[in-house]
């Protein structure tokens, strides 16, 4: 059984924590390399046919998630584009970036909230505690993404990450 994700909302900040049974270096690598991200990013039933990563401060991660699961009804065939701009990187310790909804050209969506994300990779009893702190412009912007099912999506994404980490160790 996978570890439980802890979730806490405080105003415009969402903090998520989960312990992964893998070395910190591997968990960090899973977030920093396209070949890893393609294997686990996104909720169940979604693939990442486009995943371009320029992993450096000022670099961009531009990707497209596509629903491949017919059982997901109206979502089947849907494409969702995202763009992250890396602000700071401390190898095996922390990744800071701003996450946006975008289009296929990388143009940021003005209708959807952006997120300032800080990922921390912490050694924890021979495993890795991942702490994801997501800051939104307002509590309403955070509520907008929660209402879209973001918490279920990230839970499934992190379940897929756990499975991926076990497969590559």
From TrEMBL:
Top-level taxonomic group: Bacteria
Give the matching InterPro entries.
ASHA1/2-like_C, START-like_dom_sf
A Pfam family name for this chain?
AHSA1
- Residue ranges of every copy of the Activator of Hsp90 ATPase homologue 1/2-like C-terminal domain listed in the record: 21-165
Q: What family is it from?
A: Belongs to the AHA1 family.
Query: What is the protein name given in its UniProt record?
Result: SRPBCC domain-containing protein
């Amino acid at each position: 059984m996978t570890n439980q994700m802890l979730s806490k909302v405080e105003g415009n900040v969402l903090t998520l924590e989960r312990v992964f049974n893998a070395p910190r270096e591997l968990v960090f690598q899973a977030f920093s390399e396209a070949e890893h991200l393609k294997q686990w990013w996104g909720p169940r039933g979604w693939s990442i046919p486009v995943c371009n990563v320029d992993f450096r401060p000022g670099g961009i991660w531009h990707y497209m998630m596509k629903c491949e699961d017919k059982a997901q009804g109206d979502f089947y065939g849907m494409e969702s584009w995202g763009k992250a701009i890396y602000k700071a990187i401390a190898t095996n310790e922390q990744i800071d970036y701003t996450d946006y909804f975008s289009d296929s050209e990388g143009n940021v969506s003005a209708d959807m909230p952006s997120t300032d994300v800080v990922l921390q990779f912490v050694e924890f009893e021979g495993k890795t505690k991942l702490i994801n702190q997501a800051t939104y412009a307002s509590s309403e912007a955070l509520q907008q993404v929660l209402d879209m099912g973001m918490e279920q999506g990230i839970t499934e994404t992190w379940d897929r990450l756990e499975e991926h980490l076990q497969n590559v160790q």
